[in-house]
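Hi team, as promised in this morning's meeting, here are the two structures we talked about. I've kept the exact order from the run log so nobody has to guess. The first one is mostly here for context; it's the second one we should focus on when we meet again. Sequence first, then the predicted structure tokens.
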Amino acid sequence: GEALEVTREVNCVTDFIHGCEDQLQKLKKQKEKGVLYGIPVSIKDHINCKGHISCGGMVKFLGQVKEEDSVIVQVLKSQGAIPFVKTNIPQTMINYDCSNLIFGQTLNPLNHQKSPGGSSGGEGALIAGGGSILGIGSDVAGSIRLPSSFCGLCGLKPTGNRISPSACSDRTFVLAVTGTLGPMARDVDSLALCMKALLCEEMFRLDPTVPPIPFDEEVRLRGNPM
């Protein structure tokens, strides 16, 4: 409900992920409760979710419904999280604003005259507006860091290849800097919890190209970069 209200105001959600209720019922029956048990998570547009498009703000991808969840979405689900919406991005994602010809302009919830930043601008706007408590964005040249800054949030660009980029629809670009998926939230503890959840056996099994290094709580508490 909160997400609906926020997107009516700032136009940040592109799609609601179906099957949330079914997933919640399935989770309740599981004996093992994951690290993110019951937490709704918003997902940036280009990260593949089964039964949904990942259009990158481009008309040519509108008909391509994805047949399976990306690795990160599978891992989130295995940890008990509930991916519930997909969020807006600028066309092609190489932009510090957040608008495209399909879904239109996303506004900054703190000031509607301003941009929420990009390219994870829909995530920034939704979380800052109170419609999500944890989101997954991506960053090559500031796409998590800029909207986090513009919207007064916390965001983490992890080291390249720390989290599986498998099944994201931005492989059309060959870039000198490694793009990486990462969490966005209102506080650092939420980012740490999300990283702890993602860096698990399930991810290392689903994507053997990711170095199987678990989350190091001691390094985080020493205040060194994660």
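And here is the second protein, the one for discussion:
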Amino acid sequence: AMAENGGGAAERGGPPAPQRVLFPPTFSVSEIKNKQRRHFMFLRWKQQQRKEKLAAKKKRRKEREALGDKAPPKAVPKTIENQRVYDETTVDPNDEEVAFDEATDEFAPYFNRQTVPKILITTSDRPRGRTVRFCEQLATVIPNSHVYYRRGLALKRIIPQCIARDFTDLIVINEDRKIPNGLVLSHMPDGPTAHFRMSSVRLRKEIKRKGKEPTEHVPEVILNNFTTRLGHSVGRMFASLFPHDPQFTGRQVATFHNQRDYIFFRFHRYIFKSEKKVGIQELGPRFTLKLRSLQKGTFDSKFGEYEWIHKRREMDTSRRKFHL
């Protein structure tokens, strides 16, 4: 109809009618008003993107096969981790100052094997079932740990009792709406105290393909990517929860993996299938921690001196800046 109208206008001597463009050059799927049509077009666009990416990948592979030994080295993909902003507090293993600090800090008696870890695990006041089960399972992971349920007793009264009974660490599990959401770790008798936000808690029965119950053997401890001075302190806090001499016959491993300042905890059992193949089986529980503050001394929310506090508006200025 438009072509006929345009032709008729030209025959009559008038200016030709402009041809209407269905979609402007800058059109995007988000401009489609109909929700179902927009979703359908978005799926088609994603499918097309995947096809183009796969075709480009096949093309590159064929080019590399054709070049053989003359092929250029594979490009290293850019990730947030390998583009991390350099932190001036990154620990050098050969630094004499770091070695002196580690020899004189609050955890030195543990690493010198002068003390044996003894852990008290407690909760917020009147915990619900999920938090109770989590504490019981955590006690099977950490050797020589004891669960005590608070009944309105303040932490300031619990800490002197811990010191008197030779406990080396206090773990407090906080909850919100029946879900564990916080962990306070305090080293006795002189601190420090770390406050973590807890998320992604999975109990043993919620883990797929889980193994049998853990044994009473002392597990190995793996600490990954704790590179800065702050991360080093936090890693030493976790290490001091477990006895220094692991029992390898139990084949159990507790892993604290730091990635982008999130600390992922996993508990596994490994099985040697052959000289080269090793199978691992998750035992649980699993959870994720995010450091909120590190405080000198034992828990004191009113007059405590803080070594480090996470301030989102000031610290989270770049996605590639990490503190642990």
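Starting points for discussion:
The first strand starts at residue 119 and ends at 123.
The mean pLDDT is 87.
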